[in-house]
Amino acid sequence: MNFRHKIALQKHIFCTVEVNMSFENYKDNIEEDDIVILYLGHDYMLPLKVKKGETYQTKFGALRHNDLIGMKYGSKVNAARGWLYVLHPTAELWTQNLPHRTQILYSTDISMIVFQLDLRPGSVVVESGTGSASLSHALIRTIAPTGHLYTFEFHQQRAEKAAAEFKEHGLDRLVTVAHRDVCESGFDLIQVADAVFLDLPKPWEVLASSKQALKLEGGRICSFSPCIEQTQKTCEVLQEQGFSDITTMECLLRTFDIRMVNIPEADLGQAECEPNVDAGQSSMSKNSQSEEPMEVSSKVAKVQTLSKKEYKGLSAAIDPKRSDRNALVKSAVPQGQMPGHTGFLTFATLYPA
Amino acid sequence: MLSPLIEEHQQVLLKKEKNFKVVQIRKKRPVWMEKVKFTLDGTIGHPYGSSFEVQDGELVRVVSKSEPEVLGTEGTISKGEDNRNLQDTDENQKLSRDDITAMKKEGVSGESIVEHLIENSATFKTKTEFAQQKYIKKKKKKHLAVFTILRPTTRLLCEMYFNKGPSKICNLRIDSLAQILTQANVRANSKVMIVETCVGLIVGAVMERLGGTGTIVQFYPGTAPVRQAVEAYNFPKTYFTNMHSFPLNMVNTLGRNSETNPNTQASNGASEDLNTDCVPTSEDATEEKNLNDAPVLEKKKYKVFRDGEWICPF
To answer: Is B269 on the interface with A (CB under 8 A)?
Structure first.
């Protein structure tokens, strides 16, 4: 049985009945057939479909599905060798954890796309290609409960898998999946969409059809392309088709760790007229003057990034004679590995004729 | 839902090139933009996104020709290869400033003024294609005053504030705002708590994503929430029925022990207060802030500046 939320937008009342799993709205308690997100630690999450009687082996121990049923979403669950959280799925969590059938878009790009397409509840969006439905889930989340997504995929199994997923996630009334090669046959939609999104090898081939799909009062369009040559060609054709405000951008995510960083003061040797402050300093400077620069630098503490544990023992580690020549600074330290280039996002507006 | 046509009393975005300004459509009320004064009457009834030119202080609809924004489009005028022989002097342009002013007075359109300038330029033909585009763009910007009326959206408002007054919005760039809205999973029927000093831009952005559903609770510093940006969105009254505000400097009083359980008191009070974020002020309002009393969601005066005075829109 499939119950639905009733939403009377004018009165802002909606009555909840016990519902099946839906990505659309939060639910309090876990039930069988729900998709939950297991959170085992930083950068370590897994999706799980709850089924009576089943057991899932995590690195912390066995997790019995029966234990989850009836539990509140967000609960901390203890296992044999640790604990984990059980989370309600959201579009962002799904993007992090969905099974990849193609390369997907991540939340950084998705955020900008949703923002630049002016999406809101009630918006109608056309998307091609569906791929693994990462962006699709985010689009549906934003346009619900009154909007609609028309999504096109030319690979049959992927189209079918996406449709099945939307149904499983309680979103099927908000989306229409079409198995179609839009470059060949177009969208076959006339003046219904507020926004069009394209993630295709040759997006310029569907711009005419995109223009036709957009509402008479105009709308927004976005094209995502990894290569600048694709982007250039897309911009040319957007221009020809009469789109305005053509803009291309790229979203790069910069990741940082917060660390206490030990920054030593440079030892410039003994200043001419200054008296030595303490014996320790003077012995240091005498040594540095007589030695090669290479060896001097080895005597000066190297910049260290300290982990929390190291910091705790820091006071012991600092040479008391040189403690006034160090600064301990809370810093944002760039991570060694950061997400790289995904693609160029080109946006444009279609104004009414 | 949203009317596609410009109507009177709507807040709109007036745009010229990259310059945006929020104005209200009021008949016979002139507005200023980039040293040009005009009324907005001529926009009423036209769709959002239409372009207009100023003619005799009034806006008249024009069909905007797409600028050659993308280089590589073909040109029919001959072009040069580089500027090695270019002499940059004032004599290159045969038309004087007086000539142009005279043409404008005669009512010559901006387009043809630019064409005249090109014809009378001695060096235009020797410029490279890119330089020619740049020249045309510069002349058009000066002589072709095209104004567009746009529907205010978070995207445009954030850009406007970021370009013209970033300190008003804590220097919030559009990509940051985009990330915030997504990572916080702001969507229809969600409950959102907001603390911001961005003249209401975040509140407006959240309201846009909620679509009139859900609930907003805004904790504000000072005496009243600043919601200047929310004005620009033209949200219908229904969007405000589930909006509540609470002074930040009373947060520590929440959950304090008092005769009645403050939490239930607050929620009971809330159900009464649900329908309005705006009440007539009374002297009692300040006395209610007795810290021993259970705090209720405080009713605050929410006013907008219209017709030269501050009024409560409800």
So the answer is: no
Query: Measured between alpha carbons, how far is A113 from B155 in angstroms, rounded to an integer?
Result: 11
Mean local confidence (pLDDT), A297-303:
46
Can you give the pTM of this predicted structure?
A: 0.78
Residues B64, A242: C-beta atoms closer than 8 Å: no
Contact A111 B187 (CB under 8 A): no
Amino acid at B298: E
pLDDT score at B271: 33
> Average per-residue pLDDT in chain B?
79
A38–chain B Cβ distance below 8 A for any pair = no
Q: pLDDT band at residue B307, thresholds of 50, 70 and 90?
A: low
Which tens digit of pLDDT belongs to each residue from B240-253? 999 999 999 999 98
Predicted confidence at residue B192, as pLDDT, reads 97
Secondary structure, 3-state, chain B: CCCCECCCCCEEEEEECCEEEEEECCCCCEEEECCEEEECHHHCCCECCCEEEEECCEEEEECCCCCCCCCCCCCCCCCCCCCCCCCCCHHHECCCHHHHHHHHHHCCCHHHHHHHHHHCECCHHHCCHHHHHHHHHHHHHHHCCEEEEECCCHHHHHHHHHHHCHHHHCCCCHHHHHHHHHHCCCCCCCEEEEECCCCCHHHHHHHHHHCCCCEEEEEECCCCCCCHHHHHCCCCHHHHCCEEEEEHHHHHHCCCCCCCCHHHHHHHHHHHHCCCCCCCCCCHHHHCCCCCCCCCCCCCCCCEEECCEEECCC
Q: Which of A49-63, A240-254, A289-303 is least confident? A: A289-303
Alpha-carbon span B299 to B278, nearest angstrom: 6
Q: How far is A166 from chain B (nearest CA, A)?
A: 18
Nearest C-alpha neighbor of A103 from the set A336, A340, A338, A335: A340
> What element of type H or E holds A288?
helix A279-290
Residue numbers in A near B188 (CB within 8 A): 121, 144-145
Q: Which of residues 279-338 of A touch B (CB under 8 A)?
A: none
Residue A167 φ/ψ, nearest 5 degrees: -65, -45
Q: Which residue of A has its CA nearest to B242?
A: A12
Instruction: Specify the higher pLDDT residue, B96 or B188.
Output: B188
A contact test, residue of B13, B17, B46, B66 with most A CBs within 10 A: B66
Would you say residue A291 has pLDDT above 50?
no
In angstroms, the separation between the Cα of residue A42 and the nearest Cα of chain B is 16
Chain A residues with CB under 8 Å of B242 CB are 12
pLDDT tens digits for range B98-119:
888 888 777 777 778 888 888 8
Q: Is A171 on the interface with B (CB under 8 A)?
A: no
Query: Which residues have CB under 8 Å from B303's CB, separation 6+?
Result: B278, B310, B311, B312, B313
Q: Does A105 touch chain B (CB under 8 A)?
A: no
CB distance B48–A217 less than 8 Å?
A: yes
Given the cut 0.85, state whether the ipTM is greater than it. no
Residues of A in contact with B192 (CB under 8 A): none
Asked if A349 and B49 come within 8 Å (Cβ–Cβ), the reply is yes
Burial group, residue A110, by CB count within 10 angstroms (0-12, 13-18, 19+): buried
Is any Cβ of chain A less than 8 angstroms from the Cβ of B69? yes
